[in-house]
Amino acid sequence: MTGDARQRFVDPQMQWSEEQYDYIHPDCVISHPPVLQYGGTKNGPAGMKSIIDGLAANFELHVEKVETQLFGDDLVVQRFLGATFVNRKSGRRATMNVVEIYRFDDGLCVEQDNFYKSPEIVAEMIAEAGYVAP
Q1: What DSSP line would sit under 36-96, residue for residue?
Q2: What does the alpha-carbon distance between residue 17 and residue 22 come to, in Å, rounded to a whole number?
Q3: I need a surface site. Which of 9, 78, 86, 133 has the fewest CB within 10 A?
Q4: Residue 118 gets which letter from DSSP?
């Protein structure tokens, strides 16, 4: 896979867009911290969409800075610095850094690991919002 295709997938303008799902392999494994209501693993574009739709319905996300690094021909590490989650229901805010690691094969994302600096705070905010995991 070319660096350009990987960069397109992780482009901040592409985040949470329908087009992003075209880059996800049907068997992609998406992992989040187990403490989160949507934690553990989900699979494929449908798994990613269920997470994103639930988060977008309950939270606004503002990011101060995104750093993206490509490694070899299959890995991307993305750091979201100063990621602020805003609970749409309560207005509560929490700011932390988030790291996502993506692995690609044949032009598609086959694995995504997500790491939150303070996942327990996000879990509290999710509970406050009344979010129910799919």
Answers
A1: STT-EEEEHHHHHHHHHHHHHHHEEEEEEEEEEEEETTTEEEEEEEEEEEEETTT--EEEE
A2: 10
A3: 133
A4: S
H or E, element range at 117: none
pLDDT at 55: 83
| Per-residue model confidence as pLDDT tens for the chain (134 residues) | 445 677 777 877 777 678 888 889 999 999 999 998 888 899 999 998 888 887 888 889 999 999 999 998 899 999 999 999 999 889 999 999 999 999 999 889 999 999 999 999 988 988 888 876 66
Read off the tokens for 64: 């101060």
Do residues 40 and 130 make contact, with C-beta atoms less than 8 angstroms apart? no
Could you give all domains of the chain from N- to C-terminal order, each with its CATH number? Answer: 3-129 (3.10.450.50)
Taking every pair of Cα atoms in the chain, the longest distance, rounded to a whole number of angstroms, is 43
| Tokens (6 digits) for 78 | 């993305």
The secondary structure of residue 6, as a DSSP letter, is: H
